[in-house]
Specification:
eight-stranded mixed sheet; about 30% helix; globular
């Protein structure tokens, strides 16, 4: 691997140290994958300590020196990277211990704010000595005003998606932030990891034959799914849409079902989702559906993106959707629900031909106000939008597409010759590598270095307490129905 950064190397003794609170960066989760990219591509600039979370981390409580492994991967000789694996998302005790032993210059956290309430409760304590930055994400509207205390417990908010950036700016009190600490930093993929492979490549063809077996020669159109088996990913809807795709093809050309294949790289059964094998066997028994129920190395994933004609993500909530970015970098067309961060990757453009931005008046393109998009994308607009919620997150839109719409879009695309499909996908890779999209690993690492350096150079310690003036006359009256003496 070559470090993806335009920023110069800094001697190790001059580097600032960052305590990174997120998933264990060895894990294949989306957060783990992106944390790894950030660490690897900035380890020539910073020292890193990762408090690495997992549900049941087999190395929990150990301290692991990762510097030799990082040196081997990046070609550095002086990386300074440590990993502290942990079960769950940490607690005040381990954080205080790491602050005391590691003396970090910055705390950076990355994932859902609900998992970090204990961190925000410590904000006054921490920010007397150390700034807190949050690589933030939120899946959908309406504006989550209950996140305001979390956001305002941080010194910098770096947003994954354009929608998240707009959400942050509409939820926080902007007077409390230096605007340069509110930044849009989309996920970035290494173009040397995911890249197009010629169809006649021997290794690719051998992998394809292993994947499809004796059906390989008949299959002409492949839909790929690379996501978790959880409800919001709508995996069962994709299966039934694939069945409808086959039915539509049969109407035009009897016997053509065998030409289509759906490859699902996901857990076959998950309590957070469903039993997908039962769905496939009972609802689409006549269709070619292939399950891959194990983690794969990036080389194999790149094969799958290249074998596919389209990578589908029709989730009803999606903060970003990493499989779509990987697919774009591999030169394969993407099908996305028009929701959350998935919108960024389709490059909808406004009336002036510019990539759209969101604001208070226009906070999502779910209704198709701007229909023009990148040729590498097959957008699916939500057929219904309902408000879901929980005690922790009282409301959020659930943007559900119609599986019939998905099937029709896939069928129309399947009529496009393979060479033309690959041309559309190649346009996606070109854009993903561009300075406009900022979706390459180089752009992401450069954006992080710029943001971190700016924060560290301008940050001022916070006071140990915040004082509020209490005026009894200005207090809200009690709700109707509550009696007082």
């Amino acid at each position: 691997m070559v470090i993806q950064s335009s920023h110069a190397h800094i001697p190790v003794e001059q580097r600032k140290k960052i305590l990174f609170l997120c998933d264990d960066f060895r894990l294949p989760s989306g957060i783990g994958t992106m944390a790894r990219e950030i660490i690897l591509n900035t380890s020539h600039r910073y020292k890193w300590v990762n408090l690495g979370s997992a549900i049941n981390n087999p190395d929990a409580g150990k301290g692991i020196i990762m510097s030799p492994a990082v040196n081997e991967v990046t070609g550095l000789s002086d990386a300074d990277v440590k990993l502290v694996p942990w079960n769950g998302y940490g607690d005040p005790i381990i954080l205080r211990s790491l602050i005391k032993s590691e003396r970090p210059d910055l705390i950076l956290h990355f994932t859902d704010p609900r998992f970090w309430t204990w961190l925000y409760d410590m904000a006054h304590e921490i920010r007397q000595e150390i700034p807190i930055a949050y690589y933030t994400i939120w899946d959908d509207l309406p504006y989550p005003h209950w996140n305001k205390p979390f956001y305002e417990s941080c010194d910098a908010l770096w947003s994954i998606s354009k929608q998240t950036d707009n959400i942050v700016r509409n939820v926080v009190d902007l007077s409390k932030f230096d605007r340069s600490n509110l930044r849009y930093i989309p996920h970035g993929i290494n173009p040397l990891t995911y890249f197009p492979i010629p169809d006649d490549d021997t290794e690719l063809q051998n992998y394809r034959r292993q994947l499809f077996g004796d059906k390989n020669d008949k299959i002409e159109f492949v839909v790929f799914y690379n996501n978790r088996n959880i409800r919001r990913k709508m995996t069962s809807d994709l299966i039934i849409a694939f069945k409808e795709l086959c039915r539509l093809a049969e109407l035009d050309a009897p016997g053509s079902t065998s030409k289509f294949a759906l490859v699902l790289h996901t857990q076959i059964a998950d309590e957070n989702g469903t039993d997908l094998l039962a769905v496939a066997k009972n609802l689409a028994p006549e269709c070619n559906i292939v399950f891959i129920d194990k983690p794969l190395e990036t080389k194999e994933l790149n094969y799958l993106y290249n074998i596919a004609d389209v990578t589908a993500n029709i989730g009803s909530n999606e903060g970003w959707g990493l499989s779509s970015t990987e697919s774009m970098m591999a030169g394969t067309v993407i099908m996305n629900t028009v929701t959350g961060g998935l919108q960024d990757q389709m490059r909808f453009e406004d009336q002036n031909g510019n990539w759209i931005n969101f604001n208070t008046d226009f906070a999502t393109n779910h209704a198709g106000k701007y229909p023009i998009h990148g040729q590498w994308a097959l957008p699916v607009y939500p057929a219904t939008r309902s408000i879901q919620g929980s005690l922790a997150t009282p409301y959020i839109f659930d943007d559900r597409v119609s599986w019939e719409d998905v099937a029709r879009i896939l069928y129309k695309f399947s009529q496009t010759p393979r060479a033309a499909r690959k041309e559309q996908g190649a346009a996606g890779r070109t854009w993903a590598c561009s300075s406009e999209s900022m979706m390459s690993a180089k752009s992401m690492s450069d954006n992080f270095v710029d943001a971190i350096d700016y924060l560290l150079s301008t940050w001022k310690p916070r006071p140990s307490a915040t004082m509020f003036k209490y005026n009894q006359k200005q207090q809200s009256p009690l709700p109707t129905g509550i009696l007082t003496k």
